[in-house]
Amino acid sequence: MKNPVIIKSFPNGLSLYLDEEMDFNGLLDEIALKFKESAHFFKDARMGISFEGRKLTEEEERRILDVITSNSSLNIVCIIGKDDETNQDYIRALQQLDFHRQEMENAGQFYKGTLKNGQMLETENSIIVLGDVYPGACIISAKDIVILGGLYGQAYAGGNGLEGHFVVALEMSPEKLKIGEFKYKTSEKQSKWSIKPKIQPKIAYVKDSRVIMDTITKELLNALPV
């Protein structure tokens, strides 16, 4: 019988090859065993993950992630899909956001899931959202906001009144965005769902008493007043 679960690594990520015919509960047991055996190798690394060989529902993906985190110290920060260009943007974002990793881990929190119309998430800490913030949804942080997904709703960062806070998203198209006392002014109202934009991780921060939104580059991060 072939191995029902195979783990392969690539820079900043893992590919999990899954048998398409095996009973799902049995597959979960195999995944638990694999990650328990390799826990010493991956330690507490931050990685993206892709699922290969088997079509999974969102619920099945969630259960697999729960098994992985229960049997290892891995921090899975996003699920990577089939689109090579999108994958590279996710990996690049993970690498470029590493400048703020220690602060976020010490004082921040994670939220996995999508915020939909009418939902609000509020915290006194910095927060990393593993999902999208849809139109009509709102996320509020006294410190910083990092969205490993799309920001299409509202985001308010820097509510503690201190300088140097920011908002980051892999896709940045907010209805409203505010950092401290400063609001980001969009040029015009536009549809967010008719054409899917090219993914360009962006950061919004305050400079010269106004909110600036820029594409993330290493040079920009080195020059930021945060």
Sequence-ordered SSE layout with sheet pairings:
Layout: E1 5-10, E2 13-18, H1 24-37, H2 39-42, E3 46-52, H3 58-70, E4 75-79, H4 84-96, H5 101-107, E5 108-112, E6 120-123, E7 126-130, E8 138-141, E9 145-151, E10 154-157, E11 166-172, E12 176-179, E13 182-183, E14 202-207, E15 210-215, H6 218-223
Parallel strand pairs: 2-3, 3-4, 5-7, 6-8, 7-9, 8-10, 9-11, 10-12
Antiparallel strand pairs: 1-2, 11-14, 12-13, 14-15
Structure keywords:
alpha/beta, six-stranded mixed beta sheet, single chain, 25% helix, elongated, five-stranded mixed beta sheet, 15 strands, 226 residues
Quick structural overview:
This protein has 226 residues and is of the alpha/beta class. The chain is 25% helix and 35% strand.
Report on the structure:
With 226 residues, the protein is of the alpha/beta class. It contains six helices and 15 strands. It has helices at 24-37, 39-42, 58-70, 84-96, 101-107, 218-223, and strands spanning 5-10, 13-18, 46-52, 75-79, 108-112, 120-123, 126-130, 138-141, 145-151, 154-157, 166-172, 176-179, 182-183, 202-207, 210-215. It has a six-stranded mixed sheet. A five-stranded mixed sheet has the order 6-8-10-12-13, with no helix packed on it. Helix 1 (24-37) runs parallel beside helix 3 (58-70). Residues 99-107 and 188-197 have low confidence and may be disordered.
